[in-house]
Amino acid sequence: MMSLSSASGRLLLSAVALAVSHAVSADSFDYPELVHSQTDFGGVGLMQMPTARTAPDGEFTLGSTYNEDYVHFNTSLQLFPWLETTVRYTQVHDLLYSNDPDFSGDTKYTDKSIDAKLRLWQESYWLPELAVGVRDIGGTGLFDGEYLVGSKRAGPFDFSLGVGWGYMGNRADLTGDKNQSVDCGRDTTYSGKGGSVDVNRMFTGCTALFGGVEYQTPYAPLSLKLEYDGNDYKADFISTKTGIPMEVNSPWNVGAVYRFGDWGAARLAYERGAVITAGLSLHTNFNQVSPFWLDDKAPSYRPTAKQADLSDDQWQALSHQLASVAGYQDNHVQFDGDTVTVAGTQSKYRNQDTAQTRAATLIANTGIDAKQYRIIDQAERQPITETVIDANTYAAVATNSYVGANPDDARTRQQPQPTSGTEKANLRDNVDAGLAPVFVQSFGGSEDFYMYSLGVTGNAATRLGDHLIASSSVYVNIADTYDKFKYTVPPDGTDLKRVRTLNRQYLEDTVRVTNVQLTYLDHWGDNWYTQTYGGYLETMFAGVGGEVLYRPMNSQFAIGLDANYVKQREPGSAFGLFKNEYQPAENGNRGFRVQTGTTTGHATLYWQNPLGLFNGTLAKISAGRYLTEDVGVTVDIAKQFDSGITVGAYASKTDLSAEEFGEGSFTKGFYVSIPFDLLSVKPTTSRGGLSWQPLQRDGGQKLNRKYSLYEVTDGRAPWFTRPSNRD
Where is this region: Disordered (predicted)? Predict the structure, then answer.
C-alpha cells in the first residue's frame, strides 16, 4: 500500500488558501465560468461527497479514480436535466474476489453499484439548488447511503451543505449512537442474493453534516475544492472485512481539478489527512454529438420540358437516383398517367422529410406530366406509411412562389394504399449478403475483471416474393478471453434450467451457425402487422413462433403479442438439440438441467413519451413466460437524445424468489444504441448497440428474435429513426 507524508496535504491546503485570498482581493476580476466536476465515485460533486449540482442535459462521463484503498471505474449520464445516473465498478486492492485462489486467482474483489441524484429545484436569487440522492442502489451495501444537499453560488465560489445517511453519514455528528455499532445500527445486510433495492434501510443509521466549497480560480482550467467529509470510515468495507482500521486523521479533504477543454479533466486530492486520490474523467454530450457527412448535394429544382412518359432508360435512371440520392433502396416505380408511385426502403436519412423532398425534386426534374407523386415507405417490403405530394403545389413551394412556402404544404401523410399503374423500373434484389464485425465484452466477472470476444458475422437472406424470407447467419470467432470461465454451472446453488448460463460452452465453437430460419411477414387492414417464423432462431434456441402487432399510424401506443415453442440447441453441434433435460456432472461441476421444450411469449405495450412528461422516452412493458418457465413482467425504459443516441435500462421480475433466481435476485441490464451516421461520413438509418448485464442468470430471459415488428414498423411513429435536431 502507498504511504505519504502530510506535507502533500499541507501543500494542497496552502494552494487553496492562496487562491481564496486572491479571490477576496480581486473584487473587479471577471472569473472564468465554473464547470462542475465529478466526485471520486462518479457524479457531480466535491470529492467523497455530492453536491446539488448536475451536469448539462445529455452529458456523459467515463471516469476512473485510484487511491491505496480502492479503484473506481464509473460512467455517469445526465439522463434528464433533473436526473443524474451513475453506474460504477469498484475493486478493493487488498481483497480477492473469492476465498478460493484456484477459482478467482488474483482477481480483486469487485463491487457493482448504481447511484441516482434527483434535483428538487433549481437555484434562485434567494434559494439554493436542492437535490436528494441515493448511492449504491440495490448493491451489496459497500457504499450505500442517502443524502439531501443544497448548493449556492457566490461569485467564483460554489458552497454546498448537506445531510447524509449511511456511508455519507457515519461520522454521526447529527444523530446516531456509535457505541451501539460503527454504523449506528443500520442494517447493512442485503436481501436475497444481492441486487435488490432494500428500501427499509434507507435514511436510517447515523446521520452527519457534510459540505464544502468549489472555487474557480482566475486560471480557467483550474478549480479547487475543500470538503468536510460526513464519513468516519469505521464502518467501511475494508475495515470490517479485514479488521484493520482505515487511517483517518482529519474530516477535511482538499483537492484540485484541471480541465482539458470540454472533453476531459484530471483530479488530485488529499483525503482523510492520510491518502492521495487521483482521477481522470472523459466527457461528451449525447445531445450535442453531430454527424460529419460527405453527402451528395441535394438536387436543385430544375424540371425539363413536360412529357407524357419517359423512356425505359430515363425511368431506370430515376430509380437509381431515388436509391443513391434520396435513399429509397430496393425500390420499384409505377406510373398510371396521373401518378408516379415509388415504393422502397428508406435506408439513408433518418429525417423522412429530407428523403421525400429529394425524391419529389428528382421526379419533377424528369419533366413527367403527373398530378401527384406517391412515396410508399416500406420495411422488409411491407408498406409502412404513404406520403402523397401534389405536383403543382410542390412546384410552387420549390420556386418560392408565395411567402412562407413550405414542403409540408404539398404533402399529405396517410395509410399506405394499394399501388396501381404500369411498372416502369425495378431495383429490387432478392439476394442480400454481407459481413459485420462483432465485439462482445463483459466487466466485473469473478474469474477476471474484463473479458471480451472479437469476431465477424456473415449474413445472407433470400426473398421468396414480398412476404417470405430465408435467412442465415454464421459467426467466426477471431479472438476472445472467455476461456477464463471456470465453471459450467453457477456456484450459487440454483437449480434452474441453464437457458443462458451455458454461454461459455457455446462460445467454445470457433465457427457457429447462429441463425437459419424462414420468416413470413404480412399486414392486415390499416394497423395490423404479423410475422411467423421457424428454424434455428438464435445461438442457443431453435423453434417456431409468431408475432402480431397493432400499431395505429402517428400513435404513441402500440400493442404486440408473440408466442413461441422452442428447444435448446446443443453446444458443439451445428444443428443438434438437447434430448435429455438432465445433464450429468463432469469436470468437477455438478449436474444441471437444460430446456428440451417449452412455450414462451409476451404481451407488450409500447408507449412513447409516457404521460407527456418524459419527452424522447420509450417505455416497453411486457408480461409473459420466459425461457426457464418462470412468469413475470419486464419493464424497459429508453431515453433518446437529440443526436439520436439512445440509452436504456430494463428489469425483469418473475415468480422466482431471490434464492431460486440466484445472485442478483432478478434480471437487469443497460444498453446504448448509436446511429451509425454519427460514426461514418455517409448518412444512414442503421444503428449499432452496446449492452451490459451485470450478471448473466437464467431467470427472466427472453428469446432473441431476428425481427421485431415494432422496429420493422418504426416509420409509423418514428423512434429508432427519429430525425436529429441537426438534420
Answer: 403-425
